[in-house]
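A quick aside before the break. I want you to see a complete sequence-to-structure record at least once, exactly as it would be stored in a machine-readable document. Don't worry about memorizing anything.
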Amino acid sequence: MPHLPPDLPRLRTLETWLAYTLDEVRAAITAAEQHEQERQRGIERRPPAPDWLIELGLNPDSPPVQVHVGGCWNTGKRVRGISRAEAHQALADGVKACGACRPDSELGFLDG
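That is the input. The structure line, written in tokens, reads:
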């Protein structure tokens, strides 16, 4: 057993400090558990990734740059999810198909 003070006043002080510290530890555990539960809820409620992506130009007036399959590793930072029909229409309108994920092949797109 560790060396404890022999007198009652110092033992009571130590007991008070330990009780206070234990309360702080328990509060920190509760906060950490709540944070983890919130993180898990966020993961569970995250919307599914889009099946198709369109990569946008540098400014709002620029035409789209490329069409991608959802989850493509080759996308830029300016992408948004689109529907299958929108992806097909974009390719028909001349938007370039990504050479890495080949959305044109996935869509069975043949010019026009």
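Two observations worth writing down. The mean pLDDT is 91. The CA atoms of residues 53 and 80 lie 6 Å apart. We'll return to this after the break.
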